[in-house]
Request: fold
Amino acid sequence: MLKTIVCMKWGTLYPAFFVNRLYKAIRRNVSGDLRFVCFTDDGTGLDQSSETQPLPDIDLPERFKWSPWRKLSLWQPGLGGLEGDVLFLDIDLVVTGNLDAYWSFHPGEVCVAENWTQLGKWIGNTSIYRWRIGEHTDIYEQYQRDPNAIHARFRIEQHFVSAMIDNMVYWPRDWCASFKHSLLPKFPMNWLKAPSLPPETRIVAFTGLPNQDQARDGEWPAPWYKKAYNFAKPTPWIAEHWRD
Reply:
């Protein structure tokens, strides 16, 4: 079975090596045939073993043009010549374990990480989700009909997606971790103990700050008045899994 994974890169916030390291970690952790596609506005520096395509078309209000709302473009029909169940991964994460089960788990359904800060509220975190190409295209189509009405109701893209899908399935909680919300020891232990990686974890998301390299090196950019809580000791396992 061909396993397809897509990501998106736009602007200059994340250099090309974030995509390249994601691709190499995926290749180490996916067996069999793999298709990896990066939708991007600039393919400079991307690994030639991966596939690049232009960013899918979507009409966005100017203030949201380079925001995660752009991810809604993936729900359009006929996306990039792709077929079947496709796994989307943000580039601000680290693959730490085998991913094969992400295709055998509830095939054909929308599967998503439960948002770590809103447990029990039926909110998915769209940094890690799988959907079937050609299904739930109403997400894209409804947004294109009246984006302003949707922005008036929903603060972020994943809230809108979660509201549009009645039957989404959460990945097993131990498969997907948040560096900040799942693995970082609570204050004051974050000053004494580095975040550990549970053996069952397969993907670690670095939403917001710190990024992977900052967490690896223990250099979390934060204002002085947040430093006590926004601090992580250097985390060696990141370098093991997130590398060239």
